[in-house]
Amino acid sequence: MITVSLITATDDLQALVDEINAATWDTANDVSKYDLDSLNTYLAHQDTVFVAAHETIGSERSFLGMASARVEIKPYDKERWLYVDEVDVCVDHRKKGAGKAMMRKLLELADSADCEELWLGTEVDNDAANALYKSLDPHDVAQVVGYTFEMDD
After folding, report:
1. CA 53, CA 86: separation in Å to the nearest integer?
2. 37-67: string of b/e by CB count within 10 Å (b at 16+)?
3. Would you say residue 146 lies in a domain?
């Protein structure tokens, strides 16, 4: 059974950090090494959302993945929306439904936060992510060009 939990600062964050760092990731995930201080700092912001997916079979509990997002307020009409930054499923736990379970949880959280919409993006050639998001019956699928600007150290 897959469960998706909303993570807060009162959870056992060190155990979660250990699970994340022990998980198997690939270049599609772009997951950096996690540490307790960084996760605490992230969760300290009122607008952040972090969920973790686990699977329980008998007495065994396995970490499947995580997702992070932010509740944003647009500069007009005080319209709220949920921007999903990352949805990461461990390499060895893909195709079990963890990504869909996390997205459903994020949609539920967006609804309960009175958001007008949930927005996320992925690469055009990320077939697995595109299939997942399309399976959730989105209102709109747009072709987007993304730009990255790195700041000098």
Report:
1. 13
2. eebeeebeeeebbbbbbbbeeeeeebbbbbb
3. no
Q: Whole-model pTM?
A: 0.90
Report if residue 71 sits inside a domain. yes
Question: Above 80 in pLDDT, residue 40?
Answer: yes
Tokens encoding 51? 């969920």
144 falls within a domain: no
**Mean pLDDT of all residues in 94-99:** 94
Burial 3-24 (b: 16+ CB within 10 A, else e): ebeebeeeeebeebbebbeebe
Give the CATH number for residue 104.
3.40.630.30
β pairing state of 2-6 and 80-89: unpaired
- Residue 23 lies inside a defined structural domain of this protein: yes
Cβ atoms of 68 and 86 closer than 8 Å:
yes
The amino acid present at 66, given as its one-letter code, is: M
Domain count, the chain: 1
**Nearest CA-CA partner of 140 in 107, 113, 117, 106:** 117
